[in-house]
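At this stage, I put together one protein's amino acid sequence and its backbone structure tokens, which the following lines show:
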Amino acid sequence: MEPITLNKENEQLINIDDMSEESTLTSFNVGRHSTCSGTMRILKVSKTHNALICPECFFRILLPEDVKTYRNLRAHLLAL
């Protein structure tokens, strides 16, 4: 699968070759952050939202709880 662009600065979620668009985002090892190579994770941060975070550089994107697959993630980020 192609990398997912995370922001307008063109940071990307990489190393997701083994995943499909319909693969579920897990809490651990969603992929790697292109900027620092940190292992990106999903954390629950409220009743309605999760966060995609990089523990290496503290990059963080807030996501609605209904973003559950890589396809949902890509669509959500494109809509921002």
